[in-house]
Design brief:
Blueprint (H helix, E strand, L loop, with lengths): L5 H13 L2 H8 L3 H15 L4 E4 L2 E4 L1 H26 L5 E6 L1 H18 L4 E6 L10 E6 L6 E6 L2 E5 L1 H7 L13 E4 L3 H8 L12 E2 L2 H9 L4 E5 L4 H5 L4 E2 L10 E6 L5 H20 L8
Parallel strand pairs: 3-4, 3-5, 8-9, 8-10
Antiparallel strand pairs: 1-2, 5-12, 6-12, 7-10, 7-11
Length: about 300
Amino acid sequence: MKLPPVATLRAFEAAARRASFSLAAQELGMTATAVSQHVRNLESWLGVPLFERHARGVRLTAAGQEFGITVSSGLQQIASGAERISRGRDRTVVRLASLPSVVAHFLTPRLPRFRALHPDIQVSISYSGRGHATEADLNIVHGARPAQKAVALFTAETRPTCAPAYATKSGPFDDVASLLRAELLHDDAEKAWRDWLAIEGLSLPKGANPIFEDFNLLVTALKAGQGIGLCPIALLRDEIADGQLTVLFDRAADREKYYWLIEADEMTASARLLSDWLVAEARESENRGDYSAAKT
């Protein structure tokens, strides 16, 4: 394998990315003259000019632009591989970025099973959408199909849900119109309930019912018997099965939305094990998580 000197590649990549020999020199801790010499050596090795030099600075040639992309990608892969090995990630650590609701209601009750199967793998869990997703091996997101390659873990369909005690106290809820006299609690915004009721030609009652920015806070309020919320049933199968919550109507909203599992471009063996396990657990939960809307 015939490769240019690594020092020339590092100097060229920095100069190409910064569009400046002097800025590249500051980044690499050398002089602009040294960067320029490295680039000239690389141009000599390749036999083509990579920069156009003029009085106000430098500009990449067409060949320089093409080679810059290749070199930048190659150096990034080397850096990522070195980081994984130095941290022991390939042996023990898998980074999972996830929505807090998925961690609280789906992952946490099941994670001990994964730990029992793979005691040598440490799962590092962080919030998705807060800058951690780009560093994660796996990322769980919510919504329509992402642009990246993704696997649908389970549906995000929402249905009216409350504590059985609230249904007994404030019911009966025999039809959708009966919900208009209930305390309708909101997850993030009132739009979900407004759209759900509009399908039946109903309007959201005027009032100041609570809005919970975090879904876990909404579920806490529902369990406390404070009202009815539109909830993704796939996340709450355990709470429904043990009688903490009940579903009032089968008709669902957000039928086009799912919880998606996105894999990093480069997956370690440990990350692959966790990914396959998550998919299997989601399928098992879906298969045994049957329910029927309560009759109140």
